[in-house]
Amino acid sequence: MALCTARGASVTPSSGCDDRDVGADGGGWLYWLARRSVRNPARTVSAAVLCTVAVVCVAVFGTTASLSTGGYNSVGTESAHADGLLRKLRGADPGLVLRVKSEDSVDSARARSDGVALARRVAAQPGVAAVEAYWTTRSPALRANDGRSALIGVALEGDEAAQARTAQRIVPRVTGRQGALRVSPGGRVWVDIKAAEQGERDLVRAELVAAPVVFVCLVFAFGSLQAALFPVLVGALAVAGAWAFLRLLGGVMEVSALSLNIATALGFGLAVDYALLVVTRFREEGGRGLTVPDAAVKAARTAGRSVLVSASVVALSFLALWAFPFPWLRSTAMAGIAVVLLAAMASVVLLPALLAMLGSRIGHRRSVSSPAWRRLARWVTRAPWPWAASCEAAGQASQPTARMSSRWARSHTSGCSLAPLR
């Protein structure tokens, strides 16, 4: 006979706890959700798998194309308005620079003819505001000292996201071998594009290297191979959903490519924390005599509250980033909010179903207190104010480094501008 811990009522293993008994001490909608998930776990897991496949398809078929490589300039502020006025007065800056190399001299008749034709072809591309080439302006600043290389400055229309899309479209058409010339891309916009692409490759490489190590740690932390798969599934669902959300969000606002890194790292990190809370409570309830389905519901009802509170705090913290008028910070906020809410929902809906299906294989254990952690907790709670003051002092000690980094950034970016196009 399994014991229903809500009122101590005895129930049969097949019947489970009565809804009124288990919900009497505050189960509420969380209990109802967990009970529905456990009642037909195969259907719940199948629905989660189908949702994951659907959002992965959405993410794969458009996430990168809709992301921005910029977003570091403020929008809607006085400084942004002043920058727009200055651009109108002095002309647009060349965000894309083409380096043109000739086999002989750039002043030869063939190089001059091909260079002028190339400049005209670039100027005819949609999204190009103006073009300044050595062969059309004869500016010495656009010609290399050895006379074998020259530059073509290309000003692009629109914001950073629009400029990146234009550059990605026209660069393959105008680079490489162009008659007697060999053209290679450069400039601020192209550097941002390549940096974003490199970041995506580094993200994949880091995950491939870190995933086996992290999974081994999960096996030791959760105590079994089956239990170690739970946070992986929760994290995969949360990250895939966040990536699909960012794909859709990119159609209505500028979304930074860095948000992918934030969503991936945060999603799997929170999945480990939330799954560990739920699985640990499940094992404790199983050790007290509850059946597998009842232990899964009780774990979702109790540990699930902690998961939802944690997710709410993290989501509200990310919401504060909307106070800053920078697109990359706002897209980071949206990525964080999306992935943390998805991880929390997967933990209280998908995890109970997985525990109902595989809970008998991961074993039960009674709660075991740690003397070391108990002593540390008592030490901190006996003198909370000195510990709070120490944490505040440590935070203030890091401020000089942050201010120094800010001064370094300003000193390396102020006063730098490219020659205007004519």
Give the uncertain stretches in residue-range form.
1-26, 401-422
Q: Care to count the β-strands?
A: 7
Give the termini distance in whole angstroms: 87 Å
Structural class label: alpha+beta
Largest sheet: 5 strands, antiparallel
Q: Could you tell me the radius of gyration in angstroms?
A: 29 Å
**Average of the residue pLDDT scores:** 77
Shape: elongated
Query: Spatial order of the strands in the main sheet?
Result: 4-5-3-7-6
Strand content: 5-15%
Give the helix level as a range of percent. Answer: 55-70%
The topology string of helices and strands comes to: EEHHHHEHEHEHEEHHHHHHHH
How many individual helices? 15
Describe the structure.
By secondary structure, the protein is an alpha+beta fold. Helices cover 66% and strands 9% of the residues. The longest helix has 36 residues, at 327-362. Strand 1 and strand 2 form a beta hairpin. The relative contact order is 0.13. Helix 10 (258-287) runs antiparallel to helix 11 (292-319). The radius of gyration is 29 Å and the shape is elongated. Strands 4-5-3-7-6 form a 5-stranded antiparallel β-sheet. Residues 1-26 and 401-422 have low confidence and may be disordered.
